[in-house]
């Protein structure tokens, strides 16, 4: 008998159309091909500085609301890996020839705010499954994108984004480890969840994937 795919595999399958759109977004194809306009790089860094602060805050509220000591320890171990993304921001600023130090504390954009509210609402739902489902696309989408770029041979001395791609794509990068850890926990929690709870978690996951696409679009608008 064919084995039913795990819940996390089902989530990844459901996200394929959004991942395809992300993969074809000009910001992402620009990283792949070695050129992204300066304005887009700047906007991305300014907003991502704000986004990562919010991501850490949601993660902390998740950890604070846990009542299982072992789970808390596991999540605290991951907490130390979160938010160390100053160096990819510095790389973008170097390519754009702007001062990194001046890019923090800019106003939070509409899309950034929407994505952060979405993540916070997953934590406010009081469900660890929902919260992990909403947080996972952040590390997961990047690890998928850069792995593909590495497979396609897009890194090398001709691509100024090589270091950025390798930051997220190197073995045991923070995002690769974090998404593996989160997906494992999602599968454990999903095995005890009701159909309604699974549907809710799926919606949180797919909405975050869509916010990821909007985040690229915010920095490099096509619409
Ligand atoms: C919006 C966003 N999504 C994902 C990542 C990569 N962790 C990021 N830095 N920013």
Automatic annotation (TrEMBL):
InterPro entries per UniProt: Haem_Oase-like_multi-hlx (IPR016084), Thiaminase-2/PQQC (IPR004305), Thiamine_Salvage_TenA (IPR050967)
Keyword tRNA-binding (UniProt): no
Pfam families: TENA_THI-4
Molecular-function annotations in GO: thiaminase activity
GO cellular component: cytosol
Biochemical pathway: Cofactor biosynthesis; thiamine diphosphate biosynthesis
Domain of life: Bacteria
Catalyzed reactions per annotation: 4-amino-5-aminomethyl-2-methylpyrimidine + H2O = 4-amino-5-hydroxymethyl-2-methylpyrimidine + NH4(+); thiamine + H2O = 5-(2-hydroxyethyl)-4-methylthiazole + 4-amino-5-hydroxymethyl-2-methylpyrimidine + H(+)
Documented EC number(s): 3.5.99.2
Keywords: Thiamine biosynthesis
One Gene Ontology biological process: thiamine biosynthetic process
Domain Thiaminase-2/PQQC as annotated: residue spans: 13-220
Assembly information from the UniProt record: Homotetramer.
Family, as annotated: Belongs to the TenA family.
Descriptive protein name: Aminopyrimidine aminohydrolase
Organism: Fructilactobacillus lindneri DSM 20690 = JCM 11027
High-level lineage: Bacteria, Bacillati, Bacillota, Bacilli, Lactobacillales
């Amino acid at each position: 008998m064919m084995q039913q795919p795990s819940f996390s595999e089902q989530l990844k399958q459901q996200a394929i159309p959004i991942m395809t759109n992300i993969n074809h977004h000009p910001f992402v194809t620009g990283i792949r091909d070695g050129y992204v306009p300066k304005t887009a790089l700047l906007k991305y860094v300014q907003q991502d500085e704000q986004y990562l602060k919010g991501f850490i805050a949601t993660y902390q509220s998740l950890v604070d609301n846990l009542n299982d000591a072992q789970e808390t320890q596991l999540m605290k171990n991951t907490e130390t890996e979160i938010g160390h993304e100053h160096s990819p921001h510095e790389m973008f600023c170097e390519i754009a020839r702007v001062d990194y130090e001046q890019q923090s504390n800019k106003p939070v954009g509409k899309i950034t705010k929407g994505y952060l509210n979405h993540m916070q609402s997953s934590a406010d739902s009081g469900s660890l499954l929902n919260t992990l489902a909403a947080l996972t696309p952040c590390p997961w989408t990047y690890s998928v994108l850069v792995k593909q770029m590495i497979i396609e041979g897009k890194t090398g001395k001709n691509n100024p984004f090589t270091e950025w791609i390798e930051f997220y794509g190197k073995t045991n990068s923070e995002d690769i480890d974090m998404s593996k850890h989160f997906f494992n926990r999602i599968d454990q929690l999903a095995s005890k969840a009701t159909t309604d709870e699974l549907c809710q978690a799926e919606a949180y996951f797919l909405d975050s994937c869509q916010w990821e696409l909007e985040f690229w679009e915010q920095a490099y608008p096509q619409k």
